[in-house]
Amino acid sequence: MVGSRTASGRKRAVAAAGLAAVLAAVSAGCGIGRTDEGAGRIGVVAGTTDRIFSLDPAAAYDNGSLVAETQIYSYLLNFAPGSDTVEPDAAEKCEFTAPAVYSCTLKAGLTFANGHPLTAKSVKFSMDRMLGINDPNGPASLLANLDKTDVVNDRTVAFTLKVANDQTFPSLLATQVGPIVDEAVFPADKIMPDEDVVAAKGYSGPYTIASYDKNKLVEYQAFPGYRGILGTPKTQRVAAKYYATTDNMKLDLQNGALDVGYRSFSPTDVESLRGAKNLTVHEGPGGELRYIVFNLKTMPGSTPEQKLAIRRAVSTVIDREALAQNVYKQTYIPAYSFVPEGIPGATTPIADIYGTAADPKKAAEVLADAGVTGPVELNLQYNPDHYGPSSSEEYAAIKAQLEGSGLFRVNLQSTEWVTYQKERAQDSYPLYQFGWFPDFPDADNYVSPFFGPNNFLQSHFEDPGVNARLIAESTQPDKQKRLEQIGELQTFIAQNFLPIVPLLSGKQVAVSDADVQGVTLDSSFKFRYTTLSK
C-alpha cells in the first residue's frame, strides 16, 4: 500500500458504559497494567499516533484502522504471532480445489459477537460487499483477481479466480479485504458508521469493543466465542489511547501512564528511549520501503541508454548507510533491492551489482560510457508531511551526497501530500520520493505494483519480459521454485532497468514498560493485543 496507509478520521464518537472510568484510569495512571478481571479494570493500555479511519472493512485501508480490525474481526486465514505464513483462522481448511478455484471450509458452530451464526453466506456477503461498494478509501482493489464467490454449503465457500494458481490469493484473505462481517447487520451497499459497527457487534475476532471514543480512547473486551489462530487473549481488557503527537505518548510511557506505544516514534524518540531503565524498545522485521521513482518520460537523458546510466549513477552515489545512521538513527536499514530484507525471496541485487559503498568514481564511469556529460541536472521532489518528520532531513542529505560527487546538480523541492499526489500523476516530477507499506508479507506485493502493466507509480515503465516473469512467479505453486523466480526477477530489473532506486527499509518499532510481555512485531505487520500481558 502506498505511503503510511493514513487518512484523516471522521468525527464520530460512541460513549459506551464504562468509558468514563477508563478515561479516569488512563488520565491518572491508576490501575494501568494491573489486571483485575473481577473489577473490570484495564489490564494493558496501548498508545499510538495512528488514526482509525473506519471500523467498516469496506472503507478501511490504513494502518490505524488495521490495528482495530486485527482485534475485532476474524478472517478465513490469518497469521499466527511470529509467523509469516497464513494459517486457518475462521476456516478449518483452505485449498485449491481446481487451478482457478480456491475453497475454504469454516469451523463448525462459529458465531459473531452478537450471537448470529457465521457461515459461508457471511463470507460471500463480505466479499461481494467489498467489491460492490468499492469505496475509494477501501482495499477492494486487492481483489482484482477474484471473479466470483460461491456458497457450496453452510460451511464451504469457493472463490473463482480470473488467473489460475494465484499464489498470493491465500495471503490476500488475511489482509484488509479479509474481515468477515455479519450479513444480518452490515448494509450491503453502503459504509456502516463506526458507532453502528460498535453497537451491532457484527464481528467475531478475539476482542469486542466495550467503549469507543474515536481516535481518543477505545476499550476492548475479550470475546469468549473466538476460536481462531490468535488464541485466547492474555489480557481480558485492553485500552487503546490515541495521541496527537509522539511527545505526549513518549511522556506517558516514561511516567508509567502507558504500557506500550506502537507507531510512530521519531528516530530521536527511539534513540532517547533506548536509555530508559524502565522501558524496552522492541524491533521487528522491516517492511516499509523508501525509494526514489524516476519518470522515464521526463527524467534527464537523451536516450534510454543514457537514462539508465543516470539511474545507475544515482544509485551508486547515494550512501544508504549514512542515511540510516545519521538521519534515522538505525530505525531504518539500507535497502539493496525492491523487496525489503526479511520478506521471503528478498535478495540484494543492488549491492551485488553496484556495491554497498558510495562510489562516485564508478558512477562517473557509468555516465561516461553512456556519453552523458555532467554535471547532470536533477529535479527532485519530496513530500514533507506524509512520510514522517525526517523526510526533509533525508532529502537534504541525498542532495548533499549527489552534489558532493560532482556529477549532479540537484534542484530539490517539496510539496504537500494532496498536491503531491495530483502533480506526480501529471508527469510534473522527473524524480520523486515514494514509500510503500506491504499488504501482506509476500515479495510479489513489492514487485507487481511497481513494475507490472499500468503500475501505480505511473513511472511509464513497462517491459514484456518483466511482465512474463511477474506472471510466472505469482502462479508458480512450487514454493522453492517461486522464491528462485522472485530472486531472478529482482536481479533482472536491477541490472537492466532500475526504474526506482531503493534507499531504506524501515524496521517496526514499539516501546513498552519493562514489565510488559508479548510485544510481537513480525512480518505480517499486524499488531495484536491478544499476546500482551503485564
From TrEMBL:
Residues 1-28 form the signal peptide. Its main location: other. It holds the Pfam family SBP_bac_5. It is found in: Cell envelope. Gene3D superfamilies: Dipeptide-binding Protein, Domain 1, Dipeptide-binding Protein, Domain 3, Periplasmic binding protein-like II. InterPro entries: Peptide/Ni-bd, SBP_5, SBP_5_dom. Keywords: Signal, Transport. PROSITE patterns: PROKAR_LIPOPROTEIN. Residues 86-455 form the Solute-binding protein family domain. Belongs to the bacterial solute-binding protein 5 family. PANTHER family: PERIPLASMIC BINDING COMPONENT OF ABC TRANSPORTER, PERIPLASMIC OLIGOPEPTIDE-BINDING PROTEIN-RELATED. This is ABC transporter substrate-binding protein. It comes from Nocardia callitridis.
